[in-house]
Design brief:
The structure holds three protein chains of three kinds. In chain A, 36% of the residues lie in helices and 24% in strands. Chain A is α/β, with parallel strands linked by helices. The termini of chain A are far apart. The mean pLDDT of chain A is 92. Chain B is an all-alpha fold. Chain B has one domain. Chain B has helices at residues 2-32, 39-57, 60-81, 91-113, 140-162, 164-172, 176-181, 186-208, 218-233, 238-266, 269-294, and strands at residues 129-133, 136-139. In chain B, strand 1 (129-133) and strand 2 form a beta hairpin. Chain C has a domain at 33-248. Chain C contains 13 helices and two strands. A two-stranded antiparallel ribbon of chain C has the order 1-2. Residues 319-323 of chain C have low confidence and may be disordered. In chain C, helix 2 (31-56) packs parallel to helix 6 and helix 4 (96-118) packs across helix 9. The chains are: A alpha/beta, B mainly alpha, C mainly alpha. Chains in contact: A-C, B-C. Chain A binds chain C through residues 51, 53, 72-75, 77-78, 82-83, 85, 89-94, 98, 101-103, 105-107, 111-119, 121, 124, 144, 160, 164, and chain C through 189-190, 192-198, 200-201, 204-205, 207-216, 219, 222, 321.
């Protein structure tokens, strides 16, 4: 069976900086695969290449067995790749429910429908509300995005991705900027989701990573230093030197 | 053959005038992130101040400093009073505010100087022709204009790549805090850069005085051509402005000179006339469309 | 049903439009009708432009191009008819119900080509490029001496409307008002539809909408064409109102004035652009009656609006979150 996500020899340079250096990675269907690494290791560039915002200089990306290296961002999204953003990218001026409904609308096919009021369309509103319920935001459905707390916005980020009903969920630092309590809540939510979803988790918060990940890949200076179980990675000398040992985060 | 050479020179001369305008506009946008529609008004102000001074004093050599000073002063005032408030604002507000400035300046000039075009004499020292090749005389004034354009291009290149102020200009765009930490008053720097852009526009305006008529609205025609130059070259890049100016100046001049002629050898009669005129007046926009298809961010895109 | 502030103002504006012909009778002045007709036509342009600038965050500085294309489509058909060389040898082009959709088609086609190129870029590039392409069409019509060039083109009569001559200013006003009402209704429906949600969502966060699976470019291009068609209809009405078109209809100043109208009224509101169009034409007609150099006063006014009231007149009045 083909992997959920497979990267082969990805390379990307910006001028003299090798942001991604021959990265190969295989994410199996159903697993939660964490990507960790110190700041500047090239995580953002790697995510950009997986989602399609950045074109790799060399290498190949396959989603669910299909080569998507030259596909646009929307096309990858429609083929089953959902992502959350590190810095919340919600549509300001819209309610939480509207934001989730966008995702439902996208997967229902083209939106060249000009006259019917989309906010009165139960085929959009109901699945959107389900997604909000999944992350515990149902009671915030009608609140404008800008009136939500930071933690609630992070939850909404996740809800929007879930509303896409993806095959693979790419989470870009879902814990970013959260307090301990909010963080714990998010880990709980993710633990529930991970049972029936392939997840690629890019995260700084080591507690969260070790609580959720089935396997961990360590990215250092644009290259994969090690891939293995959380226990393996935790005990690896090189990883300690490069990352954990430095005592960061 | 001679005609071709002459048109090439005319194209070069137009290119260099466009470069003077594009350099200022692209500098201001690249550094301060402001789109200034009233850049063309500074060009007009330079031309009018020059024509006025020439009429009063009877000499081009006083018109030149008058035009430069007027444009630079109005530019500095514009930055201090208006543009400064627009740095953090959306492009839409910038467009609207500077559109208001254009309306004001056009109205003001029409009110104070009238709507009929002014004429400016070529300075007597430069009124003759220079035989640049045997049998090819070329107006000395236009040659001098080209010389000034080349000198400004070199000067800008030197200033930006080799001097401290150039370094600040390059840093000022994205590392505002760093520049301020160096103890540089960024507000002053911005005023200075804006005034410099205005000065270049004024220079273009005065120099163009003797070869074109000075009139209300002259600024906007050239402004839109300058936009084409910048879009083709890549916004924010002086090198792009130069390349774009060269391409657009040449295409416009050569297109106007030869497209109707070429069409006439294919077609005949009034159709060729009409089509030729229409085609040659839109040729630079077609070039822009072509560049956009191939390189949407211009020939020399600025990263980021 | 709860009446919002927006609802109240909408009704006030509608009543004002309906009252115009009676006011004209009371005042015994046909100028009121002419001015109100212009307001209605400009309002159509403003509504269409707001769909781009206000709702989609696409600052088009070349909207006059589609207005002009619509006007010229009507005038050129009439010109050929008057000179006994009707286009495709068919006299039907004098019928409004044919000529006006034709004008919309021509303007929409222009918007399709210009939009397809301009929308490859964003931000300042987009502003400059839309301006430049509009200027290209301006020069094109200046150069087309056959159709009058600089001097423009006159129409000997207005188009027939469903076979009837429209000689009465009031009748024509009602037609323009009906066109405005249709455009408003359409734009309101569109902006709340799935299509409109994509446009507005992409204005709020383009990255998000792409990541959800929306090919944003296509939706924006469709919006650009729709807005161009509405502006084309307005151009056709304008040509009929003045029985004259000239390259001035496509000039960059007019594109700028259209933007001023939309912003002055208030972006992203239904009635704001209509209020803006009315305010602009009233100010213009008042100031230009006062001095030939009215732009000297109007320019600083625009500047002040841009700096101090970016949400416009309507934006200051209406409640938050209303559509």
């Amino acid at each position: 069976m083909s992997a959920a996500l497979q990267l082969d020899g990805l390379c990307k340079s910006f001028g003299s900086l090798r942001a991604t250096d021959n990265v190969s990675l295989r994410v199996e269907a159903g697993e939660c695969h964490a990507i960790i690494g110190p700041n500047g290791a090239g995580k953002t560039t790697l995510i950009g290449q997986i989602t399609g915002e950045i074109r790799p200089d060399a290498g190949r990306i396959a989603l669910l067995g299909t080569d998507v290296t030259h596909w646009s961002v929307p096309r990858r999204a429609l083929s089953g790749l959902a992502r959350s953003f590190q810095i919340t990218q919600l549509a300001q001026g819209f309610s939480a429910l509207d934001n989730a409904a966008f995702a439902v609308q996208a997967r229902q096919g083209h939106s060249f429908r000009f006259l019917a009021d989309s906010r009165k369309d139960p085929s959009l509103r109901k699945p959107a509300l389900d997604a909000l319920t999944q992350v515990g935001l149902a009671d915030r459905a009608d609140r404008l995005v800008e009136t939500l707390s930071h933690g609630e916005r992070r939850q909404l980020e996740l809800a929007v991705a879930l509303a896409m009903q993806p095959r693979i969920l790419l989470l870009d630092e879902p814990m970013a900027g959260m307090g301990p309590e909010e963080g714990e809540r998010m880990v709980e939510i993710l633990r529930g989701i991970k049972r029936h979803m392939t997840i690629v988790l890019v995260e700084h918060d080591m507690d969260a990573v070790f609580a959720l990940a089935d396997r961990v890949s360590v990215l250092v200076a644009g290259a994969i230093l090690k891939t293995g179980s959380p226990a393996d990675v935790r005990s690896d000398e090189r990883v300690r030197d490069a990352y954990l040992g430095a005592g960061s985060h | 053959m001679q005609l071709v050479l002459e048109q090439l020179l005319n194209g070069l001369q137009l290119s260099l005038t466009l470069f003077l305008l594009a350099a200022g506009l692209t500098l201001v946008f690249g550094i301060m992130g402001v789109i200034n529609l009233a850049h063309g008004s500074l060009y007009m102000i330079g031309a009018y101040a020059g024509a006025w001074a020439a009429a009063k004093t009877g000499t081009f050599w006083l018109a030149l400093p008058a035009g430069l000073a007027a444009a630079a002063l109005v530019g500095a005032a514009m930055e201090l009073l208006v543009v400064r408030r627009l740095y953090a604002r959306e492009h839409l507000s910038q467009v609207l505010a500077t559109f208001g400035l254009i309306l004001f300046f056009n109205g003001f000039i029409a009110w104070s100087a009238g709507r009929s075009p002014l004429l400016m004499e070529t300075p007597p020292q430069l009124s003759g022709f220079v035989e640049i090749l045997p049998g090819l005389p070329y107006p000395a004034y236009r040659l001098a204009m080209m010389g000034v354009g080349v000198a400004v291009a070199l000067g800008l290149w030197y200033m930006i790549s080799r001097t401290r102020i150039g370094m600040l200009i390059r840093a000022g765009s994205d590392k505002r805090e760093m520049v301020e930490a160096l103890g540089v008053d960024i507000a002053k720097l911005f005023t200075l850069v804006f005034a410099l852009g205005a000065l270049l526009a004024g220079l273009a305006g005065v120099m163009v005085g003797p070869i074109r008529s000075v009139q209300v609205g002259m600024g906007e025609q050239v402004l839109i051509t300058t936009f084409v130059v910048i879009v083709v070259g890549g916004i924010g890049s002086i090198r792009g402005a130069f390349a774009g100016a060269l391409l657009i100046g040449m295409c416009d001049t050569l297109g106007r000179a030869f497209v109707p002629m070429l069409l006439k050898s294919w077609l005949s009669g009034p159709l060729a006339d009409g089509l030729g005129g229409a085609l040659s007046s839109v040729i630079i926009y077609l070039v822009m469309a072509l560049v956009l298809i191939v390189r949407p961010r211009g020939l020399f895109p600025v990263s980021g | 049903m709860k009446l919002t502030r927006t609802g109240v103002f909408t009704i006030v504006v509608a009543l004002a439009f309906l009252a115009v012909p009676y006011a004209a009778t009371l005042l015994g002045s046909n100028y009121v009708i002419t001015l109100a007709t212009r307001v209605a036509i400009y309002a159509i342009v403003a509504v269409s432009l707001d769909m781009l600038v206000g709702r989609s965050n696409l600052v088009s500085f070349g909207h006059a191009a589609y207005f002009g294309l619509g006007g010229y489509a009507v005038a050129i058909s009439a010109f050929h008819l008057a000179n006994d060389v009707p286009i495709f040898g068919w006299a039907g082009t004098n019928e409004a119900l044919i000529a006006w959709p034709l004008a919309m088609f021509v303007a929409g086609f222009g918007a399709l080509i210009i939009g397809a190129l301009s929308l490859r870029t964003a931000g300042v590039y987009f502003i400059m490029i839309t301006l430049a392409f509009a200027q290209m069409l301006f020069f094109l019509f200046v150069a087309l001496k056959y159709y009058g060039g600089d001097d423009g083109l006159s129409l000997s009569t207005r188009n027939l409307f469903a076979g009837n001559r429209i000689t009465d200013a009031r009748t024509f006003y009602w037609i323009c008002l009906a066109a405005l009402a249709i455009c408003l209704l359409l734009s309101w429906r569109i902006l709340n539809s799935r299509f409109g949600m994509v446009l507005r969502g992409a204005a709020a966060s383009e990255r998000r909408m792409a990541a959800l699976g929306f090919p944003v470019y296509r939706y924006r291009l469709a919006a650009f064409v729709i807005a161009g068609m509405m502006a084309g209809l307005a151009g056709a009405l304008w040509a009929n109102q003045n029985r004259f078109v000239s390259p001035d209809m496509l000039s960059w100043v007019r594109s700028g004035e259209f933007l001023v109208m939309v912003i002055m009224g208030g972006l992203s509101s239904l009635v704001g652009p209509v209020v803006g169009a009315a305010a602009f034409l009233l100010i213009e007609s008042y100031l230009s009656g006062w001095t030939e150099h009215w732009q000297m006063v109007f320019g600083p006014f625009v500047l002040l609006v841009a700096v101090f009231a970016p949400r416009g007149l309507w934006g200051a009045l209406r409640g938050k979150g209303d559509v």
